[in-house]
Amino acid sequence: MLFSKKWDPKGKHCLVTGGSSGAGRALAVELAKAGAHVSIVARNPERLQKALEEVEKARKTPEQVFRCYSFAVNTESGSVAAIEAASEPFGGRCPDAFFLCAGASRPGFFIEQSEASLKQGMEQTYYAQAFTALAATKAMVKQGIKGKVVFCSSILGYFSMVGYSTYSPGKFALRGLAETLQSEFMLYGIEVHLAMPGTMYTKGYEEENVGKPKITLKLEETDEGATPEHVAGVILKGVRNGKFHITVDFIGNVFRASSAGASERNSYALDWIHGLIGYIALPIWRKSVDTAVVGHRAEHQEYLRERGFLSV
């Protein structure tokens, strides 16, 4: 990595899913600042148009092409349609890089879930990115494009806790998919990256907090979080530098190094230090989390009675 040439998005066509808000929107702006052609995809046309206006403000050259497209990407057909639409202004050539940021979080207790909500959770966290990756890489291989696929998972793809039974499984699954494809796509010269950000202060985060269990909110009280702009900057820097696992802060680095398995290391020296810190500190942190959850039992019992899960 020290001697490899950095990836430059200038003049490249980059497609961003979930591009109307949060990290996706911020990434679209960062890519525009870097001189890329940018296509953003999301469901809500009104939000898309506002995001496109922000991207336009970041324009560097008159030649840059910016477009927005309203598609649902939680199916392969929807993803194919989005990619085909984004490819039209470029003579049918598919994008050079795909930044997959589509997704949503709806925290809650597992026993309150249903078959439908569990499936919806996987659609919002895994399929919303997996199907786009499937459609994108089929097009890239067919056209001989040696580009990039960037998944946006979460620090909750390294560990999980109370309240995230419909969210973390899909984020863990994205890691498994990315690690598989990072190996497999060496066959085609396609590079894969996996971003694992923590809490981001977005409208989506505010919405998920409305129904988030009290114990989960309590456990997250000390989480400093970050702005989407900061996260987008770190992700793009990691992609430029060729990193596979991209973490945003110190805590992310500790979890990454402690659960790296056979994944590529970002730095053997620093990862050894982060891993050692994790070996000592993470069991202590986990014990404090478990103690807080057990201490919440009485309040939770009352919560269950109010909702008819327990007899009075």
Describe the structure concisely for a colleague.
Helices cover 50% and strands 11% of the residues. With 312 residues, the chain is α/β, with parallel strands linked by helices.
How would you explain this protein's 3D organization?
By secondary structure, the chain is α/β, with parallel strands linked by helices. Helices cover 50% and strands 11% of the residues. It has eleven helices and seven strands. The chain has helices at 22-33, 45-57, 76-87, 115-143, 168-184, 203-210, 214-219, 228-240, 250-258, 268-295, 297-306, and strands spanning 13-17, 37-42, 66-70, 97-100, 148-152, 191-196, 245-247. The protein has a seven-stranded parallel sheet with strand order 3-2-1-4-5-6-7, sandwiched between helices. Helix 1 (22-33) runs parallel beside helix 2, helix 1 packs across helix 8 (228-240) and helix 4 runs parallel beside helix 5 (168-184). The radius of gyration is 20 Å and the shape is globular. The N and C termini lie far apart (62 Å).
Categorize the overall geometry: globular
Q: What is the helix/strand order?
A: EHEHEHEHEHEHHHEHHH
* Mean pLDDT score: 94
Task: Name the beta content range.
Answer: 5-15%
State the helix count. 11
End-to-end separation: 62 Å
Number of strands: 7
Structural class, from secondary structure content?
alpha/beta
The rounded Rg comes to: 20 Å
Strand order in space, largest sheet: 3-2-1-4-5-6-7
**Oligomeric status of the shown chains?**
single chain
Largest sheet: 7 strands, parallel
Helix content: 40-55%
Return residue spans where pLDDT drops below 50 for at least 5 consecutive residues. none
